[in-house]
TrEMBL record, chain A:
Keyword Transport found: yes
The species this protein was found in: Actinokineospora xionganensis
Swiss-Prot/TrEMBL keywords: Antibiotic resistance, ATP-binding, Nucleotide-binding, Transport
Annotated PANTHER family: ABC TRANSPORTER ATP-BINDING PROTEIN (PTHR42711), ABC TRANSPORTER ATP-BINDING PROTEIN NATA (PTHR42711:SF5)
Protein name per the record: ABC transporter ATP-binding protein
From TrEMBL, chain B:
Family (UniProt): Belongs to the ABC-2 integral membrane protein family.
The name this protein goes by in its record: Transport permease protein
Species assigned in the record: Actinokineospora xionganensis
Domain ABC transmembrane type-2 positions: 116-347
Signal peptide region: none
Subcellular location: Cell membrane; Membrane
Xref: Pfam families: ABC2_membrane_3 (PF12698)
């Protein structure tokens, strides 16, 4: 455990919009240098939670310490140390990508050269002179992230930064975020990509209906689930009866294209299958965050 | 801090100058009014009464010197009289030797009266002078200011004030609404800058744009074809100009604070500015309006900006005329600005 004070301490925050409890008693702590993810379905309260921590919204109750200070009312001393990418990108009308970034940079006293490097970092150099409204969705997203990072903040808040990104851009962003973390910065982010959260985050919080349902490192969450391993075969390579007869097969079901065997003892099941020579097109899927999510929210996850 | 001010001002200026519709309504549209009205009314007010003249002599020469009439020469009395009979001319002066004879048409009473008075007056004056006696009654005539401004002289300050007011109101209101709707204000709130930096950079851009507008409008009106003539105290219009911009900027901020969408802001701005434009002497001199309308118009800041601009740009008033327009505009700015600052929000809801 580290001795440095935590970057963020949130205690029992509440926020209601009329009858709707958008955030309903959320508490968590993010250590300095930690990569913290918040997951949850639409309307779970992720954005609201994040914006309360940033100081953009005032909670109805509870307390927030951000880098040891209170983020609201508007705390100007704190602002240069945090970087925020809002869920909806905020750009100046009619300015090019480069101009947007330079304008934001100058608000923090950062020169145009650094802004140019930032553009390079998110792979937008060839779009530098394109106006904001002519950028694609993913390009806007990348520009918005660059604007959040340009002043090299200590704590970075990203609200669904990888939404709308193509696989290549997503991987690139992962590299950027990892590099930032390696320099000791704290990152808090929300996402709908559970596989991504599993790879990137030191810890994740799973939210629904304004509450945190679980909070741990992804591996711990998955292990704690005690979920079966799924062995997936091509349909027709094995009959349902034969599959059910395999020792260790807990459950078997089939759809048009595949046959799935659920098991808690994958090794003997796989060796039995190998003996029968039915390994063609075989896939093994162990539990992931998606299963955790399904288990916690009772909802199938669809990104 | 100054870096933030500069870059925000630049961002807003670029937003302004890159929008073709905004440029059109800020520059071309008001200029169209200036050009059309300027050309349409170019000769109005300079119109002189035409009188027919036959013969020659000191009376005809003196008549011409009054500058009030234009003489149309005829070789014979018959031709001239026919013109008067046909109603083409109000009168014909026949000067032969020491006799001056005026024939006039009775159909147009008022013009006949003017012509009679003029010719009689000039003749009597010459008579007095010929007698060698000093005149018993001194008669002095001087032109008072200034119901007879040439149209371009009142059109320029009027249309200029209107154009500047429209641009200031719309610019301030639409920037605020757009920035709030697109979350730029929220994002700015997360940057280490003060609200007054945002406000002052927007005001700076508004003043800069208004300055360019003023240069363009006055520049065009000064072209020989329109013939604007600036008075010697034109520079006293600068404080009126600045305070006027400030007042309309405050109105724009108020609208921007109230309205959620650009459409609503455009509507509200039109509702505020259009009546002012028609009732403040933008397109016609307000002195010609009925008294109640003049009183109503005094409630509008545009009227006072207009008056101030006219006083100094073309009427050549001295600094004492600054007081009323400046005081009204300052008061307006303070009141409206105060309300705007109370209603202002960084984001919707
Ligand atoms: N300003 C607001 N006024 C009223 N209700 C709001 C407001 N902001 C959020 N809500 C409500 O609060 C709930 C939580 O919203 P929030 O934006 O935090 O969800 P989210 O987890 O970020 O969802 P998403 O994945 O769609 O971004 C939603 O039901 C939303 O309708
Ligand atoms: Mg959200």
């Amino acid at each position: 455990m580290t001795l440095t004070p935590p970057a963020i301490v949130v205690e029992d925050i509440h926020k209601a919009y009329g009858e709707l409890k958008a955030v309903d008693g959320v508490s968590f702590t993010v250590a300095e240098g930690e990569f913290f993810g918040i997951l949850g379905p639409n309307g779970a309260g992720k954005t609201t939670t994040l914006e309360i921590v940033e100081g953009l919204r005032v909670p109805d109750g509870g307390s927030v310490r951000l880098l040891g200070e209170n983020p609201f009312p508007r705390n100007v001393a704190l602002l240069p140390r945090i970087g925020v990418q809002l869920q909806a990108s905020a750009f100046f009308e009619k300015l090019t990508a480069r101009e947007q970034l330079e304008t934001f940079a100058s608000l923090y006293g950062i020169d145009a050269k650094t802004a140019g490097e930032m553009l390079d970092l998110v792979g937008l150099t060839d779009k530098a002179d394109t106006r904001e409204d002519k950028l694609s969705g993913g390009q806007r997203q990348r520009l918005s992230i660059a604007c959040a990072l340009v002043h090299d903040p200590d704590v970075v808040f990203l609200d669904e930064p990888t939404a709308a990104l193509d696989p290549q851009a997503r991987r690139n962003l992962w590299d950027v975020l990892r590099a930032i973390q390696e320099r000791g910065k704290t990152i808090v982010y929300t996402t709908h990509y559970l596989d991504e959260a599993e790879i990137l985050c030191d810890r994740v919080a799973i939210m629904d209906h304004g509450r945190i349902l679980a909070m741990d490192p992804p591996a711990t969450l998955v292990r704690g689930l005690d979920a079966p391993t799924h062995v997936i075969l091509e349909r027709g390579s094995l009959s349902l009866e034969d599959a059910r007869a395999i020792a260790g097969a807990d459950d078997v079901h089939a759809d048009e294209v595949s046959l799935t065997i659920s098991t808690r003892t994958p090794a003997p099941v796989l060796s039995t299958l190998a003996e029968r020579g039915t390994l063609d097109g075989l896939q093994v899927r162990t539990a992931t965050l998606e299963d955790v999510f399904l288990d916690l929210t009772g909802r199938e996850y669809r990104a | 801090m100054s870096g933030a001010f500069t870059s925000l001002s630049k961002a807003m200026a670029k937003g302004f100058f890159r929008d073709k519709a905004t440029l059109f309504f800020s520059f071309i549209f008001p200029l169209m009014f200036l050009v059309i009205f300027g050309l349409l009314f170019r000769d109005a007010g300079a119109e002189k009464i035409k009188i027919g003249a036959v013969g020659d002599g000191p009376v005809l020469a003196a008549l011409e010197q009054t500058g009030a009439v234009e003489l149309e020469r005829f070789d014979s009395v018959e031709v001239g009289v026919r013109k008067v009979r046909d109603g083409d001319l109000p009168g014909l002066v026949e000067a032969t030797g020491d006799t001056v004879r005026l024939r006039f048409a009775a159909s147009d009473q008022s013009r006949a009266g003017i012509v009679r008075g003029l010719v009689a007056g000039v003749t009597q004056e010459l008579n007095v002078r010929a007698s060698g006696q000093p005149p018993r009654f001194a008669f002095a005539a001087e032109q008072v200011e200034d119901a007879s401004l040439k149209p371009i002289q009142y059109l320029t300050p009027g249309i200029m004030s209107w154009g500047i007011a429209v641009t200031a109101v719309f610019g301030a209101a639409l920037t605020m609404v757009n920035w709030r709707r697109k979350q730029v204000l929220r994002r700015l709130r997360l940057a280490p800058i003060t609200p007054s930096t945002v406000l002052s950079s927007r005001l700076t851009v508004t003043i800069a744009v208004a300055f360019v507008q003023a240069l363009v409008f006055v520049g065009v009106a000064l072209l020989p074809i329109f013939g604007l003539r600036l008075s010697g105290t034109w520079w006293l219009s600068i404080p009126v100009f600045l305070l006027g911009v400030l007042a309309f900027f405050a109105i724009g901020m108020l609208i921007g604070a109230f309205c959620k969408t650009e459409e609503a802001a455009t509507g509200a701005a039109n509702i505020v500015v259009l009546p002012m434009a028609f009732l403040s002497g933008t397109f016609f001199p307000i002195d010609a309006a009925p008294p109640w309308l003049q009183s109503v118009s005094k409630a509008f800041p545009l009227r006072h900006m207009n008056d101030g601009m006219m006083d100094f740009l073309v009427r050549g008033q001295d600094a004492s005329a600054l007081l009323v327009p400046c005081a009204v505009l300052v008061g307006f700015t303070l009141v409206v600005g105060f309300i705007a600052s109370k209603v202002f929000t960084w984001e919707d809801s």
